Amino acid sequence: MENIHQILKQYWGYDNFRPLQEDIINSVLNGKDTLALLPTGGGKSICFQVPALAKDGICLVISPLIALMKDQVETLKKKGILALSIYSGMSFLEVKKTLQNAAYGNYKFLYVSPERLETSLFLEFLPSMNINLIAVDEAHCISQWGYDFRPPYMRIASLRDQLPRVPVLALTASATVGVQDDICEKLHFGKDQQRYQQSFERANLSYSVFNVVSKQNKLLEILNNVKGSAIVYCKSRKHTKDIAELLKLNKISADFYHAGLSNDDRNKRQENWIDNTTRVIVCTNAFGMGIDKPDVRVVVHYGVPDCLENYYQEGGRAGRDSKRAYAVLLFNDREITELQEQGNVRYPDKEAIKNVYIAVMNYLQVAAGTGEGTSFDFDLSTFTTAFKINILTATYALKALEQEEILRFNEVFFKPATLVFNTDKRELEDFEKQFPQFQTLLKGLLRSYEGIFDYPAIIYETDLARFLQMKTADLKRELQQLQHYGIVDYSPQKDSPLLTLLLNRMYADSFVINLANYLGRKENFELRVKAIIEYMINTVTCRSKIIAGYFNDPGVKACGICDNCIHQKTIQVTPEEFEKITTYILDFVKQNSAGINDLLNNGKKFKKEKLWKVIDYLQSEKKLLVNREGKIIVEPNL
């Protein structure tokens, strides 16, 4: 077993690990199942990459994010570490070749999606792989009570029957205590399991929340006052384009990004932002996963996120270089009302789900009792227009059907370009003599892709065009001409929504979902909404303390740099006022089942800032407690 410090220095150039990384690595090397809760930018990947390199064998990394898989594999390859990935869009032969390399080659990492684990081909090769560690990234996806439940994660535990002595490392950036417990239970962690939670404190990150009439004006003010790289998160694709145009009109370098753009467009815009050619990227939450850009000075949430998990993860992309940075949330009163109504929007009733399911089956012309395993191109907008269904109802009904494992809907299905020669080398030489204009392209293909005569190779048109010093459009045209001449079999890159049926079509009278679990997920969603609303309207408590408290990290001290901390320095409460407000709060809470809003609205004779200050004090002294339903209760001994 190699020394972990030598590995860290050799491949990453660091002399020391970040806090908890070494503890997590040693736990894994000692064969213990381990849960690592490391906030955004906390260095999760090193926690499984270093121990995997220290031991013989290959590390199986389970991740739901294709882009993240590809980025990590490319990063490892640049370090001279052999790594593989399997993702949707690869052909049977490509998957088989990858699994053969994982089983019999000298590879150290195999990245797969959770859906891949139960395929017969994967299970066929599994016994031949010398797996030294199972790393489960985005582990919160295994809990249906969390904010991003993905049913395929539930099947990861079945691997443990075949790999009983292989430790599991579960990694996530944000999970409440309940979700942490669920992760450990669902992954069948052993009795000697270890949990590590890095502090949620970000001493250099200033959180601010503004209730504004004009978000556009406030955004311009923020970006003019805070220089440097920025991210602006929006709720819709249309907003990303509109806001980017607004910024450009005001002479701020900006571009927009969302999942509806082609893969080439997304890569180009992301690269321009990373190298600071573009200052501001205006995006949906499709942007940011796995991007390591340390010099982001400000992250603005132009649209309100629906939970603190997402807000903390996205806002935490600012200031990873440890210099002062800002996370700003803009909202208005109407958005609070909309958030409170989101439970019914996100979780339509059973009848609505059933109606969407029947409409989808009719749209795809699937007969009852058939369809299992079949995939279809599926444009949601075209479908909802044809059947006159509200697009939000359809979207969340499909989400419910996914979580019930009835179907799977990939909003962006990425299928890379593939190419294989249809001729032998002698015939190819004859073709080159007749058509010398293709010589540069043909030689480039042969030099870049080994085995391209034997099986379809994945080719990346943009990278190949750059290598050959051609325009991407010209390269694609020449590839299509070679296809026309029958020299190659070329399938261009594809970005399109894909819907896959996981079960045969149910008859209308036998449609069923697990209603108890579904309603439980709705209840947990509504509790998360309450938490983000209380974060927004709280004008007293340190923002960092609110976030840390939500994630059960009570030791975090007031940051002194968020809007609330700065504001509190200007508010004074006299002893007389403190006594009156305390009496009001304790009497009201003892007599009423109340939330923060009830307490504030009923106490209008006191200034809201002073009310907040006393509430914050009573909470810090454990004289007031907040229960799981978001209701305030008085400490029983008072």
Concise synopsis of the structure shown:
With 638 residues, the protein is an alpha/beta fold.
Key words describing this protein structure:
638 residues, 6-stranded parallel beta sheet, 5 domains, alpha/beta, 44% helix, Arc Repressor Mutant, subunit A, Rossmann fold
Strand-helix topology:
Blueprint: H1 4-12, H2 21-29, E1 34-37, H3 44-54, E2 58-62, H4 66-78, E3 83-86, H5 92-104, E4 109-112, H6 120-125, E5 131-136, H7 159-162, E6 168-172, H8 177-186, E7 194-197, E8 205-211, H9 215-225, E9 229-233, H10 237-249, E10 254-257, H11 263-274, E11 280-283, E12 296-301, H12 308-315, E13 325-331, H13 333-346, H14 350-363, E14 375-377, H15 380-387, H16 391-403, E15 407-415, E16 417-421, H17 425-434, H18 439-448, E17 457-459, H19 461-468, H20 472-484, E18 488-491, E19 494-501, H21 515-537, H22 543-550, H23 563-568, H24 575-591, H25 596-602, H26 608-620, E20 624-626, E21 632-634
Parallel strand pairs: 1-6, 1-7, 2-4, 2-5, 3-4, 5-6, 8-13, 9-11, 9-12, 10-11, 12-13
Antiparallel strand pairs: 14-19, 15-19, 16-17, 16-18, 20-21
Helix pairs in contact: 2-3, 13-21, 14-16, 19-20, 24-26
Structural account:
- With 638 residues, the protein is α/β, with parallel strands linked by helices.
- It is 44% helix and 16% strand.
- The chain has 5 domains: 4-197, P-loop containing nucleotide triphosphate hydrolases (Rossmann fold), CATH 3.40.50; 205-331, Rossmann fold, CATH 3.40.50.300; 339-415 and 497-519, Orthogonal Bundle (Arc Repressor Mutant, subunit A), CATH 1.10.10; 417-492, Arc Repressor Mutant, subunit A, CATH 1.10.10; 571-638, Orthogonal Bundle (Arc Repressor Mutant, subunit A).
- The chain is built from 26 helices and 21 strands.
- It has a 7-stranded parallel β-sheet with strand order 3-4-2-5-6-1-7, sandwiched between helices.
- The N and C termini lie far apart (57 Å).
- The mean pLDDT is 90.
